[in-house]
Input
Amino acid sequence: MAGAYYARAAVLLALGCVLATASAQEWLRAHATFYGGADASGTMGGACGYGNLYAQGYGTRTAALSTALFGNGAACGQCYKLVCDRKTDRTWCKPGVSVTVTATNFCPPNWDLPSDRGGWCNPPRPHFDMAQPAWEKIGIYRGGIIPVIYKRVPCVKKGGVRFTINGHDYFNLVLVTNVAGPGSIKAMDVKGSQLGNWMPMARNWGANWHSLTYLNGQGLSFRVTVTDGQTLVFASLVPPSWRFGQSFASNLQFHL
Output
């Protein structure tokens, strides 16, 4: 009996060590700067195509990602938890706080400056250029740049996934916003009510996906797969009377 007890204890201890190691490996190191002003007004728009971040529900908890993280737009909508690394720099880090931001923009390289002297977003450096209000949750303004540890976290959203249709005849550009769970989209398909078959869409830029099929006057359905593998079908979401520039909110959302 004692042997069995100690064997079980050893297994549990080993499992605990594995879980602790896995948890520790979730955190990665990077640096963070800020942009956009104290009200984050300068962060509107951006390389993900979300436009007015206040209207879209992203607010001021956002960040532009360096090349190493942005993935040519594949990271748009992802959420990251950041903590200022006081073990590396106690001067400019606020203690005991964290902030969660959504990737809404791209921080381009600056090849005229070295990566440790102003070229913060140069490859292969992981870097977050955060909206100033978000940055100031964890850093002291005068510091300008801080070391951080970060990890991907699920995105928590209110309401369902939203779709905005732009473009013109034979070019349907669909912006997908308010995506919970992983936040980022892996694949997307569209189906017109008069065609009946799912047609793959391609990432055009950021969170915008396009189709080159004439879909005017048809009801539209979308099938979206996010980067953790979840797939949802938004059946007959868009009525045949839709017009370019309109947005449509669904009642469906991805799991955390």
User: Anything to note?
Assistant: The two ends are 42 Å apart (CA to CA). Residues 28-153 form a domain with the Barwin-like endoglucanases fold (CATH 2.40.40.10). DSSP finds three helices and 15 strands in the chain. Residues 1-24 have pLDDT under 50 and may be disordered.
